[in-house]
Design brief:
The protein is an alpha/beta fold. Helix content is 33%, strand content 19%. The chain is built from 14 helices and 18 strands. The radius of gyration is 22 Å and the shape is globular. The chain starts with a strand and ends in a 21-residue tail after the last strand.
Length: 554
């Protein structure tokens, strides 16, 4: 078995991982970066979601100085708390607000070129070169630090001894096992987009960071909350943001019939739904724009989908109010001409708003373990656009520096046989297995079930169907996706209300009296357990008149 040692092990290949790696090195730690596939090669395992933009632009939400007219700190903080609807961590939101400007300046000093000083926004064009690619720029820096990059490293479990994380085990693409001893481990593995039939996540985002942390004894929270939105299904995948586009556009089913009006409650008009949809891309029950998303998914489930499992969107008579030229150019690069073509669109999973519970330095509840980027949880029921990318840099930097400090304090660590044997035995079984099923044989059916049962809206019946599927598949396969699916399904079942991105059609109202609390998941003797704890207890939360200050918000 190959055996590696390092001070700080960073797992993942996106912007959060690269930030943590640079910060740990600058803090004086020996560093190793482990990626599933190729490091920094867009579209391949190991590149991370940061390297794979599927929209016409991306942005880091900026914060102005105290007293400024543009995005003053308290106003941005207030928007973040309100967007989370009581489920966001106020302390971590304040850290973001206080430090995201420094993160943007740091990226500029590395060579990033943003479109303006006021907005850290960039055209998401792969032909624009490396000056607008966080991973490409930070990869160049990492290559000059002596950091060991371990490619094709598929981690399977974290090593835990004496109540702390001391490394990880895994296999390479040939099935050969390896051991990584580390003074601190930073999980930057992204989210769990591959759990759903339609997702913006690259192929490596299979929830293994969540699953490994849960098995090792760390807490996950807010897993029932996830950002979802509209995108094309064919001829390629592209996010479709209807920002400042209240009409005229048409949405048709496979038979060429309009249908949105059939899903509207009494008193709600198509014009109102379109106007509200122009102010935010994500699915959310905070306003009536939800009914447009419900209608699109409903037509597919009713059997009236296009050949590519979507509905038709006609934008030939519409123009987006926000950077329309970028939108047109991006879709053209994906083979779509909105002046001539009908788009085939569907609802896609974008990001998980929950994840591994962390403190302001990115430390998980398991000593020696850190989590950053989408692998960490700190935002709430909905989230502002630009906070995921910015938070990856803010907390990636903080976690890298703190992980270096923790590793120095622990000295050399070395896994012992009692800690390793339970982790290596499944790897040995896997190498010897000659069953009729491969783990990936499960994925398409699992993705379809989870998309149908949890995307946009769910109820006790759909959640029960997802739970039954997970139970049945556990008899055949052990898989990280199943572990994470179980957490999401059970958390969504427990939260008997609708709040932001968590929509229960059988409990359509938000219930602050019963559900102004977060759900924390842990594993105890292999059993999944949930605890109600409110991360905003010391700060409190009340709904704010006027809701979110800046539109569009997501």
């Amino acid at each position: 078995m190959n055996h590696y040692r390092t001070d700080v092990l960073v797992v993942g290949g996106g912007g959060a991982a690269t930030a943590a790696t640079i910060a740990a090195h600058e803090a004086g730690a020996g560093t190793m970066l482990a990626v599933k596939g190729r490091f920094g090669v867009p579209g391949e395992r190991g590149a991370g979601a940061t390297s794979n933009p599927l929209a016409d632009f991306w942005t880091i939400r900026t914060v102005g100085p105290e007293g400024s007219f543009f995005n003053p700190p308290d106003a941005v903080y207030g928007d973040m708390i309100q967007t989370g609807l009581g489920m966001a961590d106020p302390e971590l939101c304040r850290v973001f607000v206080n430090e995201v400007s420094d993160a943007v300046k740091r990226l500029r000093s590395m060579g990033m070129q943003f479109q303006s000083k006021m907005l850290a926004t960039m055209e998401a064009n792969p032909k624009a070169g490396n000056t607008n690619s966080i991973v490409a720029i930070q990869k160049t820096i990492i290559e000059q630090t002596g950091t060991q990059v371990l490619e094709h490293a598929n981690l399977t479990d974290l090593v835990v001894e004496d109540g702390g994380c001391t490394g990880a085990v895994g296999v390479d693409d040939e099935g050969e096992p390896f051991l990584l001893d580390a003074g601190a481990v930073v999980i930057a593995t992204g989210g769990v987009g591959q759990l759903f039939r339609y997702s913006f996540n690259p192929p490596g985002n299979t929830g293994d960071g969540y699953a490994m942390a849960l098995r090792a004894g760390a807490e996950l929270f807010n897993m029932e909350f996830m950002q979802q939105g509209l995108a094309t299904t064919w001829p390629s995948q592209a996010m479709v943001m209807l920002y400042d586009m209240e009409e005229p556009y048409r949405i048709l089913n496979a038979h060429g019939k309009t249908f949105i009006h059939e899903y509207l409650p009494a008193g709600v008009t198509l014009e109102e739904v379109s106007r509200l949809k122009a102010s935010h891309w994500p699915v959310s029950c905070r306003d009536a724009a939800l009914h447009l998303d419900r209608a699109i998914k409903g037509e597919v489930l009713a059997g009236r989908a296009t050949a590519h499992d979507g509905v038709f969107l006609d934008l030939s008579g519409a123009e987006r109010g926000f950077q329309p030229e970028l939108f047109i150019k991006f879709l053209e690069s994906r083979g779509i001409d909105i002046r001539r073509d009908l788009l085939q669109v569907q609802l896609h999973h974008h990001t998980s708003n929950g994840g591994i519970r962390i403190d302001p330095c990115g430390q998980a509840t398991l000593p020696g373990l850190f989590a950053v980027g989408e692998a960490s949880g700190w935002q709430g029921a909905d989230r502002l656009g630009g906070t995921m990318l910015g938070g990856s840099q803010v907390f990636g930097w903080r976690a890298g520096r703190k992980a270096a400090e923790v590793a120095r304090g622990r000295g050399d660590v070395s896994a012992t046989s009692p800690a390793l044997e339970p982790l290596l035995e499944p790897l040995a079984r896997m190498r010897e297995a000659h069953g009729r099923h491969r783990p990936d044989d499960l994925r398409p059916t699992l993705q379809r079930v989870m998309w149908e049962c949890l995307m946009v809206e769910k109820d006790a019946t759909s959640l029960g169907r997802a739970r039954q599927f997970i139970l049945e598949e556990r008899d055949r396969l052990a898989h990280d996706l199943l572990d994470v699916a179980e957490v999401i399904v059970e958390a969504a079942s427990l939260r008997t209300e609708s709040r932001g991105s968590h929509v229960r059609s059988d409990y359509p109202a938000r219930d602050d009296q019963a559900w102004l609390t977060n759900l924390f998941a842990t594993r105890d003797d292999g059993q999944l357990r949930f605890e109600r704890k409110w991360v905003a207890q010391a700060h409190g939360w009340t709904d704010r008149p006027g809701d979110i200050r800046i539109k569009p918000w997501g």
